[in-house]
Amino acid sequence: MVDEEIADLAQALLALDEQRAVAVARALIDGGADPQAVLQRGLADTMLEVGRRWNAGELFLPEVVAAAEIFRLCNEIVEPALIAAGGRTLGHRVVMATVKGDLHDLGKNMVGAMMKTAGFEVHDLGKDVPAERIVEAVRELEPSIVGLSSLLTTTVPEQRAVLAALEEAGLRRSVKVMVGGAPVTEEWARQIGADGFAPNAPEAVRAALALVGDERLAGA
Ligand code: B1M
Predict the structure, then answer these.
(1) Is it the case that residue 215 has pLDDT exceeding 80?
(2) Is the pLDDT of residue 218 over 60?
(3) Nearest atom in ligand 1 to 61's CA
(4) Domain 2-84 class?
C-alpha cells in the first residue's frame, strides 16, 4: 500500500501535478510512512528521471523548474517528520551551502534534512554562496563541518576555491570539509584535500558522523 502510494507520488511529480503530489505526500506522512523512503524513492529518484527526460529533449526548462518546485513543496511536508524521527542532538554544527554560481539546492536541502535527523545543528547558507560568505560563517558559527554541494561541472572547481579561502583565513584546520553533488567524485575530494565525500544523503550522514567520531559508527 505504502509502496503504491510512493509510486503514485513519483507519478504525480513526473506529471507535474502539484496538487496531487502534495496531497499524496501529506497522506503518506500522516499515515506514518517512513519519511526517508518517501523522500528518496518518491522524490529524489524521480528527479533523476526528470533529468533523463530533460537530456532526451522530452522535457523543457520550465517543466524542470516546475518539478523542482513540486519537490520543494513535498519536501516541506516530509522534512518535519524526518527530523522528528531522529530525536537526539549531537552537539555538532554543520554549515551547508551550494557553491557560487550554482542554483541547485534540492540535494543540498535533502542532505541538510538528514543531517538534522542524525542530530546535527544545521546552518544552511543557501545556494550560489560565495567562498567569503562561507569563511564568514565558519568564523562566526565555529562549525565542526562545512558541507559543499555542486551540481554543475562548471561549479565543482568552486569547492577547491572554498578550501583555499578557508586556508587563507587560517580556519582550515578548525573545520572538516565535506563535498558532494552529482558530478563530484571521491577522487576529486581527495585531489582538493577535502576531508569527506558522499554520493547521496544517507552516505553523507555516515561520512559526517565519521568525521566527528560519533560512536554510532562503531560496529556499523
Ligand atoms: Co539543472 N542541471 N541546470 N536545474 N538540473 C542538472 C544538474 C544537469 C545534469 C541536467 C542535464 O543533464 N541536462 C545539468 C548539468 C550538466 C553539467 O554540469 N555537466 C544541468 C544544467 C545544465 C542546468 C542549467 C545550466 C540549465 C540552463 O539554464 N540551460 C541551469 C544552471 C543554473 C545554475 O545553477 N546556475 C540549471 C537549472 C536547473 C533548475 C533551476 C531548473 C533546477 C534546480 C532547482 C533547484 O535545485 N532548486 C534544475 C534541476 C532540477 C536539475 C536536475 C534535473 C535535477 C537535480 C536535482 O535536484 N536532483 C539535474 C539532472 C540530474 O541531476 N541528473 C540538473 C535531485 C536531488 C535530490 O539530487 O541534487 O543530485 P542531487 O543531490 C543528491 C546527491 O548529489 C548528493 O545527495 C543528494 C541526495 O541524495 N549530494 C550531496 C548533493 N549535495 C551533496 C553534498 C554532500 C554530500 C552529498 O556533502 C556536503
Answers:
(1) no
(2) no
(3) 41
(4) mainly alpha
117, 151, 185, best to mutate for ligand 1 pocket (most atoms within 8 Å of CB): 151
Domains of the chain by residue range: 2-84, 93-218
Average pLDDT, the chain: 94
Q: Which residue has the cell 526528470?
A: 50
pLDDT at 216: 65
Q: What CA–CA distance (Å, rounded) separates 188 from 117? A: 27
Quickly list DSSP for 155-217: TTHHHHHHHHHHHHTT-GGGSEEEEESTT--HHHHHHHT-SEEESSHHHHHHHHHHHTT-GGG
Q: What's the 174 CA to ligand 1 centre distance in angstroms?
A: 30
Q: What per-residue confidence (pLDDT) applies to 219?
A: 42
Domain 93-218 carries which CATH code? 3.40.50.280
Q: Does the CB atom of residue 184 touch ligand 1 within 6 A?
A: no
Rounded Cα gap, residues 52 and 111, in angstroms:
22
CB-CB contact of 149 with 96 (8 Å):
yes
Q: Is 37 in the pocket of ligand 1 (CB under 6 A)?
A: no
What's the pLDDT tens digit per position in 159-182? Answer: 999 999 999 999 999 999 999 999
